[in-house]
Amino acid sequence: MKLHRLIIGLCFAALLSACGGGGSDSTPATGPVASTLSFPLKSAYSTLVANGYTKRYDVSGSCNGLASEVTAPATGGQTFNGVSVPWSTALTLSINVTTCASITATINTYYDTDYTPLGFSSSGVYSVYLPPPSIPTSIMVGDTGTIGTATNFTGSSSTGTREGQTVVSYVVEPDTASTAIVNLIFKTFDTSGNLKSTEQDRYKISSTGALAPVSKDTLTATTHLILQ
């Protein structure tokens, strides 16, 4: 299943000062800034998918170690849900830890002509967005919304047994005067509507349309992994 996960932080701008004995000078520090700019999320996301990326993380939480994420540039000529699709990508996430079993997962994601995701597949899991998700063209700090819902099946097609669904939403968080943090949130439910996992991906976006992964967070009933 798509391993996209991040912590939603409490983001605010603040000015802190500390005074020592004898009247020493204060030392200011600033926190995240709520930019007033707009950010081109859809075009930035499309460019990231088209070009691919590589990211390395430190792993903490239930396990400790290192992780690497490699997404190949989008290619054509694939079939998804019984039809030919214009684009697809293969994301490989390898987590090497000392306190838990290491894992490697490959997730294939399929897109239409403008890189809107149609669904994804991994080992034993097949997920289809119906209808296709809606990625906002432009966003600002403080924006929230739902991008779409994917129906999950076991096996290698939508003819498998239905497992539940994954609801994808977003929150735009403060960062700097010219950048923001896009927090993509994936909540997966079983067929009875019970929450199974919450996954969050955080990406830094600039007003010029650069988009890059920052950190990931996955929370289930038994495991909490933080990649940053």
What would your notes on this structure say?
This protein has one domain (41-227). It has one helix spanning 41-51, and strands spanning 53-61, 65-71, 78-80, 83-85, 87-97, 103-111, 117-122, 125-129, 144-154, 162-174, 179-190, 195-206, 211-220, 224-227. By secondary structure, it is mainly β. Strand 7 (117-122) and strand 8 (125-129) form a beta hairpin. The strands form two sheets. A twelve-stranded antiparallel barrel has the order 1-2-5-6-7-8-9-10-11-12-13-14. The chain has a two-stranded antiparallel ribbon with strand order 3-4. Mean pLDDT is 87; it is low at 1-28.
Short précis:
The protein has one helix at residues 41-51, and strands at 53-61, 65-71, 78-80, 83-85, 87-97, 103-111, 117-122, 125-129, 144-154, 162-174, 179-190, 195-206, 211-220, 224-227. The chain has 228 residues and is mainly beta.
